[in-house]
From TrEMBL:
Pfam families: SLFN-g3_helicase (PF09848). It comes from the Bacteria. This is Schlafen group 3-like DNA/RNA helicase domain-containing protein. Residues 40-390 form the Schlafen group 3-like DNA/RNA helicase domain.
Length: 404
């Protein structure tokens, strides 16, 4: 997977016309504001799989080439690429290790850069942030962040930020963002917003992508056009073990195929193994990955269940998704319900002081769960396989979208 990820994010990959236009506009924006007294921010929005990371990778390479020139508006600038995702950071640093003009030290976790710059009373010129929806929006002592908001902390340390933002990929209360919150926060700063809308990851037609989007927003189960199967392998399974065997077969055939799951099963960061059991299906959750290769690149992880934390931002060829106990069919059998009492990812739903209203917290829990499902459903380039824990949902999915 690492080679595939590097190839996808290579600065030498030819961008689409839309991507090239955004890269050029970002460079123009940076040059216009690099010497301003007040920091400026360039925001790129887009759903999962629309090429946001590709744009940032190519933009940062151009930025670093310009910084090494003796003259010009960006000559001798000090710039950093940030991502608050350890698995994705490994890929970017590996890209830096293989390409001229890029240094691994220029790719950082936001907290590390904020703490170092603050301690040294230093500043930098341009920051490029992938997956900015993962930035902390409150203090987090566990991650050694003692400010109030990572985005504001970074704006105080630089001249220009370029970020990509997808509200549908917000996954934790401590990184709780939406477009309204982001626009309110950025109101005092010079800014420009652009949007990417072409889907690149999934080799699926609009019927299936639209089905996923409705499943994870208004929670409706739309009908599917039969033509979508001509381009994409979408299957619903009544048996999780049968789905696992199908994923193993695809992994043997084309590689990069894995089982993943939503929350709802035993999961505690205590160093021990925690299993997902569904009938004859019995596999452990992924463990924290201390190795350089990303989780899905490690061969033995075909015998683990991936989580949102190991898969977000990555491409798989085939993904088998288990919709866990919180994901249920509504009483009227017309839509999806999220039972927040069955959520087991305690780290994602820790209390935050600025969210005291129980209704707001409940709405946030539901939305974060739907966001995670959206991200997991859009991991597969060639195929998506589904199994639902809830018997009523499983029966509805199997009857409407064919049983395997």
């Amino acid at each position: 997977m690492q080679n595939q990820a590097i190839k996808k994010l290579s600065p030498f990959k030819k961008p689409t016309q839309q991507q090239a236009e955004i890269i050029n506009e970002a460079m123009t924006f940076i040059q216009a504001h690099i010497h301003d007294a007040k920091p400026a921010i360039f925001v790129i929005t887009g759903d999962a799989g629309t090429g946001k990371s590709v744009v940032l990778s190519q933009l940062f390479y151009k930025l670093q080439q310009a910084s090494r020139k003796e003259t010009g508006p960006l000559a001798n600038t000090q710039n950093y690429f940030m991502v608050n995702h350890p698995e994705l950071l490994k890929v970017y640093r590996n890209i830096a290790g293989e390409l001229p003009g890029l240094l691994k030290k220029n790719f950082q976790r936001p907290t590390s850069l904020i703490n170092r710059m603050t301690k040294n009373q230093a500043h930098f010129d341009v920051g490029v942030i992938d997956e900015s929806h993962l930035l902390l929006s409150q203090p987090d002592h566990y991650n050694n962040f003692y400010g109030h908001n990572q985005l504001i902390s970074l704006l105080k340390l630089c001249h220009v930020l370029v970020i990509v933002f997808d509200a549908h990929q917000v996954l934790r209360l401590k990184t709780y963002w939406n477009q309204e919150r982001l626009r309110t926060l950025l109101a005092p700063y010079p800014q420009k917003w652009l949007h990417l809308d072409q889907q690149f990851r999934m080799q699926a037609d609009n019927s299936l992508i639209n089905w996923i989007d409705h499943f994870t927003t208004d929670r409706k189960l739309l009908p599917l056009q039969t033509s979508f199967r001509l381009h994409y392998d979408f299957r619903v399974f009544s048996d999780a073990e049968a789905m696992r065997r199908a994923i193993v077969n695809q992994n043997n055939r084309v590689g990069l195929s894995r089982i993943v799951s939503t929350t709802g099963y035993p999961s505690t960061l205590d160093g021990g193994q925690h299993f997902i059991t569904e009938g004859h299906f019995h596999l452990p959750w992924d463990q924290y990955n201390y190795t350089a290769p990303p989780w899905a690149e490690i061969p033995k992880t075909i015998n683990e269940v991936g989580s949102i934390y190991t898969c977000q931002g990555f491409d798989l060829n085939y993904v088998g998704l288990i919709l866990g106990p919180p994901v249920k069919l509504s009483a009227d059998k017309q839509k999806i319900d999220i039972d927040s009492t069955k959520l087991t990812d305690g780290e994602s739903f820790k209390h935050r002081a600025d969210m005291a209203d129980p209704k707001e917290i409940e709405m946030a829990k539901v939305q974060l769960t739907l966001n995670a499902i959206n991200v997991l459903m859009k991991r597969g380039v060639k195929g998506l396989y589904l199994f639902a824990h809830d018997p009523a949902l499983r029966e509805r999915l199997c009857s409407e979208y064919h049983t395997i």
